[in-house]
Amino acid sequence: MIIGTLTRYYLLRRDYRQYPSYPHGVVANLALGFIAAVIGAVAVPALAEKEFTAVTFLALAATQFREVRNLERTMLLNLDSMQLVPRGPEYIEGIARVFEARNYLVMFTSLLVGGVTFWGNIFYGLLAGLIAVYATGWVMRGKVVGQIATVREGKVYFEGPNLFVENIHFMNLGTEEVRNNYRKRALGVVIEPRDDNGRATLANNGQRMAIAHDAAALLGVYRDMDTAEFTPVVRRHLDTGRVALVIVPIEKDIAFLLEAVKRVPVLESALRMPLKNPVGRKASD
């Protein structure tokens, strides 16, 4: 139970994503982690004593963690309407899926430690626990944009009222004051996919919303609720599959912006791998 609860604490992340909040969100997730650890730990002696009724009850309790995913999704969707730069439903679905999966990993860790301790000794149980904690951290790592694409600075410029980053058109800005703000403050980023898998992934609108949200969360955004013209925008070049971001940040630092974009997680729902299929490989040739 202790190892399982500590595993949930180890997997808990409080950063720019602003969830889980402190202290209530943290307490709620640690409580759920403790419950998952109890379920995993109690399963071993229940099986050893052939208490199959208890095991059935524990399995039923474990299925309730699906509700965690639904609750997280609903809560984050409600909060998203208040964001200056929304996460988007696909990013939120990924967060909810992660919170559900982490409880299952805690349950598995407790089950493993309990089993090794029961049929071995406490030393082997602690060793298995340390290995399991490390393994769960490794399993929960996903890809980031910097692994599927090259991220570099892009030149922001106007042709008349039309805003471009390199040769990618973004929007028409009719007000000279707004255009001047873009000239003074705006930064542009070009994201070039490394292969057809990256190109298909970056074509996903949810993935592009995640890039805009994370960039705004880390560097700030020069806008308020009634200044939609300063919302970070991500556009795609249809011929090459390149993606460009334009943002008017509070902190104008291109080096940190490039690093922020590189670290944006690749959403599970957005990940595409056409090169894994023979037809996709032949088409790419």
Report on the architecture of this protein:
The protein is of the alpha+beta class and 285 residues long. The chain has 2 domains: 2-139, no CATH class; 145-284. It has 12 helices and 7 strands. Strands 1-5-7-6 form a 4-stranded antiparallel beta sheet. Strands 2-3-4 form a 3-stranded antiparallel beta sheet, with helices on one face. The termini are far apart.
Q: Tell me the structural class.
A: alpha+beta
End-to-end span in angstroms? Answer: 53 Å
What spatial form do the alpha-carbon principal axes imply?
Answer: elongated
Q: Which parts are unreliable, with pLDDT below 50 for 5 consecutive residues or more?
A: none
Mean pLDDT, to the nearest integer, reads 85
Tell me what portion of residues adopts beta-strand conformation: 5-15%
| Biggest sheet strand line-up | 1-5-7-6
Secondary structure tally: strands: 7
Largest sheet: 4 strands, antiparallel
What kind of assembly state do the chains in view correspond to? single chain
Percent of residues in helices comes to 55-70%
